[in-house]
Amino acid sequence: MKVSFYTLGCKxxxxxxxxxxxxxxxxxxxxxxxxxxxxxxxxxxxxxxxESDRKTRQAVRRFKxxxxxxxxxxxxxxxxxxxxxxxxxxxxxIVIGNKSNGDLPEILEEYFRNKKRLVLTSQHEKxxxxxxxxxxxxxxxxxxxxxxxxxxxxxxxxxxxPVARGRVRSKPLxxxxxxxxxxxxxxxxxxVLVGINLSAYGxxxxxxxxxxxxxxxxxxxxERVRLGSxxxxxxxxxxxxxxxxxxxxxxxxxxxxxSGCDNTLKRMNRHYSVDEYRALCKNxxxxxxxxxxxxxxxxxxxxxxxxxxxxxxxxVKDIGFEKVHVFPYSVxxxxxxxxxxxxxxKAIKEKRTSIMIDECEKIRQYFLRSQIGxxxxxxxxxREKDGMLLGYTAxxxxxxxxxxxxxxxxxxxxxxxxxDEDCCIGEIES
Length: 430
Ligand code: SF4
Known about the structure:
binds iron/sulfur cluster, alpha/beta
């Protein structure tokens, strides 16, 4: 039978779709591309914002409408966090949460045996073990995401993820080693370690986040190790010093800020102050050459006054992040913030979002232009519509250059000569 995946959300979700595809392959299912007809459509959903829920509902209806004789499976974070809402999506023939992904082969078998709609959304439990999973390839990509951690114990007041993902759980190092060696044997030169709260890795094991990074950097054939999103307060001075000794570690850190205002951070139940965050950025830039810092910033959170927003904007500009993902606050049912006072009108959220995006974009353009004249090492990965090759440097600067397709998946030195919209342009040096 043919299976097709439609994946929403984060790198962990993308990894889980790949891992699920490889699991189903062992049971005789063939994964086909999104434009091909399939017998089963699996929607791996996200629920981080109201918009992701809307996209999930839309996808379930669209896939069933366009493929009435196929089976539509809804899984992922939306049914896990909101099982009652998911059950009402009758266009989905099977509804499971991310907790049950590993049982999908048996669930499909039961469905085809009884031809009856199945809704199986059991909640995450305390003490639950990390669900073993691995990938041996990652679509046609040059870099492979590797999930090493799941869950979160934080309960930031605006976030539904701890409900959707359960408590912190980590992949044992021995499983990680085998997976990385397999990916290296498959020719992957760059891997990205990902998790729901990545830097909380090992809190449930006698192993630490640094152990996992050092292990990844020790695998032969893997030449770059990149990190997914990190929480600031896990990155202590000792952790940074240890990471700085990992030569293959990419000097690009995505450290979730959320707000540059202490009042707002308190209401968000975030565990650091803006001064601590600033000191962290200074330390990373001191310990890693050519270091780039990227982040997530939320605007329009409950009770965010005009002055709070101005403070946050000033802080973000001060740090000078190379890239910022800006989000308007989205109310999540079941979170502490849902019941808070001071929810702001949509118009104010939109206005602050566009102001923050404009200012961050100016800093981004300034950073890209500052690369002109440099020669950088690029891992090329695809050919763009304009016929140029696209790749990334170790600090995740996107670079385009004219060159042969044979360079895809390979490193080359590029002299940066110009920039365009969101990347640098250069000439490949022989
Ligand atoms: S750290 Fe906070 S924002 Fe991140 S997943 Fe956990 S609860 Fe959500």
